[in-house]
Write a structure and sequence with these properties.
mainly alpha
Length: 105
């Protein structure tokens, strides 16, 4: 985040939020342990909400929104949701570009 120019206060806030849900996500409940991370996070409705909010904030942020100029945002939302669903153990598969190709690294 710092490499993208995000200020220290915002980085700290993001880390605090992530840490606050860590115990819920990593809980040791035997029933919950059998669930995928996708299920623990709330499934598709949660992934949809997070991705929608993420891009709303990114596009409103003049420090980073230029990276998405000319991007088909409906497709971007769809691909990000598919990627996170797959990465977190949800249903379906991800057939998009790998991270290096998607970000031209």
């Amino acid at each position: 985040l710092k490499e993208l120019g995000v200020c220290d206060a915002d980085v700290t806030e993001a880390a605090t939020i992530a840490n606050s849900v860590r115990d819920d996500v990593l809980c040791k409940d035997p029933v919950a342990e059998k669930k995928t991370l996708f299920e623990k996070l709330g499934g598709a409705p949660s992934i949809d909400a997070v991705v929608d909010l993420f891009y709303k904030k990114v596009l409103a942020d003049r420090r980073v929104n230029s990276f998405f100029k000319g991007t088909d945002m409906k497709k971007q939302h769809r691909m990000q949701k598919a990627f996170l669903t797959f990465a977190f153990g949800g249903p379906g598969s991800y057939s998009g570009k790998n991270m290096r190709k998607a970000h031209h690294v």
